[in-house]
Amino acid sequence: KSMGASGALIFRLYLVQVMVLALLGIAIGLALGASIPFVVAATAGDLIPVPAVLDVYASPLILAAAYGVLTTLAFAVWPLARAREVPPTSLFRDLVAPERRFPRPAYIVAVVLCLAALAALAVFTADRPLFALWFIAGSTAVFLVLRLAAVGIMALAARISVRSASTRLALANLYRPGAPTPAVILSLGLGLTLLTTVSLIDGNLRGELAHDLPERAPSFFFVDIQSDQAAAFEKLVTSTPGVTKFERVPMLRGRIVAVKGVPADQVTPTPDAAWALRGDRGITYAAAMPESSRLVSGTWWPADYQGPLLVSFDDELAKGLGLKLGDNLTVNILGREFVARLANTRQVDWQSLGINFVMVFSPGQLEAAPHSELATVTMDEAGEGQLERNVVTHFPNVTSVRIKQALAQITLILTQFSLAIRAIGSVTLVSGVLVLAGAMAAGFRARLRDAVILKVLGATRWQILGIYMREYLVLGLTTALIAAAAGTVAAYVIITQMMNLPWHFLPETLGFTVLLATFVTIVLGLVGTWGALSASGARGLRAQ
């Protein structure tokens, strides 16, 4: 500007530089991303349960490149537009006392459009757009919380009065012009919030699968019990030592072909209910309501009911299909269509792992239909092997499923899935660490100037180091506590509201988060300021 360049020229010049660097980074990232699947398949192929079809797919690479370009523009336009407004006469004063300037309206609109394009890209390319939308809303909320927390911490540090000169200087570094407080809290906070959320969800799911579910789940599921075998099968099982509970219900297969008279292929259900219209479903009939169900609406039919066919439906699924009490539901069973009226809806406790069905019909018409029976057995673990051998010997057509083995397999799959999610979360955290390192590097000259002034005033290297350690300790600890609180809230909502599982507080997970954030902040802070600590006072003054 001092040499006559216009603000627009300066903006274009530096935007071109930023975009060239960004395109180089995107190209490197695409090359790595395209090659890593081949490396993983060659080194850890046996750990992948589904065989991968290895190839270089264009659409994911194009999508990744679009994310890279839009992200660069969204985060580069604002600071470059602000730099355009800095008058040459105030440049040096801006280094120590920066003024808050907003870009011109055109640049603000450009940033908003880039952010909106990023959000739209995430939503419309996701398999579940609604989930992506909630993720964006949650990330935005966490970002705002962290930003407000940074402002609050800086304001609080400015009001705290302590006797120790070193502590006063450490607190002053939190709110001085150009302080790294917002950058540290935002960069580390987002990654740590994600990791905390994933870790708490994973811990709750593991606890549910490893401890809670096995305690209340039956020992066996037995399927394909023929009607003429049912009495003999029940006698064999109940006479086995150690059996404490036996439950048997009829089981048929049926497919929903019409909802309120509308063919199933013309019904528009909610995404969570669409699966009910695809393929056959297990159904049953019963005189009494299943133990693991709670009536939500309507009334249950009498035990001796013999009238027109009625059906009880899962409440959430009924809402997803647009069903209300009195509506008709047409189900095809063994090639014959049955029309049933919705008599009531239930909330089903699927976590009991007992016998549960989405659709339970009234007895009468379906009793004469050919069907098999399904049974559950709860017993002492010591006798499970003997019971399974007896069933195989006397009823070779009956299939047994040992629940604990199934849960162990699910836990193994969940462990592998959790590892993958943690790896993705770690990428977010590493990105935050890189942003933090960049912020520390950008503030090196200010750190150097501060260190030189303190040395000239008589401070030793260890005293300056103590000041910086106090500053980074407060920053890291505060960031960790905020991330732990935000991650706990997010995990609680997902576990209790989306998964309908009981919540367990995991203090060890939160403790690890706090220690990790504090350690990373202190280490990066000291690495970024070590050069300033080593500078001599005379050389530093000449450099200034």
- What is the succession of H and E elements? HHHHHHHEHEEEEEHEEEEHEHHHHH
Question: Strand count, sense and closure of the main sheet?
Answer: 6 strands, mixed, barrel
Number of helices: 15
Total strands: 11
Rg, Å, rounded = 32 Å
Can you walk me through this structure?
The protein contains 15 helices and eleven strands. The protein has helices spanning 7-44, 58-84, 91-96, 105-124, 129-159, 165-175, 181-216, 230-238, 315-321, 384-394, 403-442, 444-456, 461-498, 507-534, 537-543; strands at 220-226, 243-259, 262-263, 281-285, 293-298, 310-314, 328-333, 336-348, 359-361, 372-379, 399-402. The chain has a six-stranded mixed beta barrel with strand order 2-4-9-6-8-7. The longest helix has 40 residues, at 403-442. The mean pLDDT is 82.
Topology:
Elements (H helix, E strand, L loop, with lengths): L6 H38 L13 H27 L6 H6 L8 H20 L4 H31 L5 H11 L5 H36 L3 E7 L3 H9 L4 E17 L2 E2 L17 E5 L7 E6 L11 E5 H7 L6 E6 L2 E13 L10 E3 L10 E8 L4 H11 L4 E4 H40 L1 H13 L4 H38 L8 H28 L2 H7 L1
Parallel strand pairs: 4-9, 6-8
Antiparallel strand pairs: 1-10, 1-11, 2-3, 2-4, 2-7, 2-10, 5-8, 6-9, 7-8
Task: Name the descriptors.
544 residues, 15 helices, alpha+beta, single chain
What is the structure about, briefly put?
The protein is of the alpha+beta class.
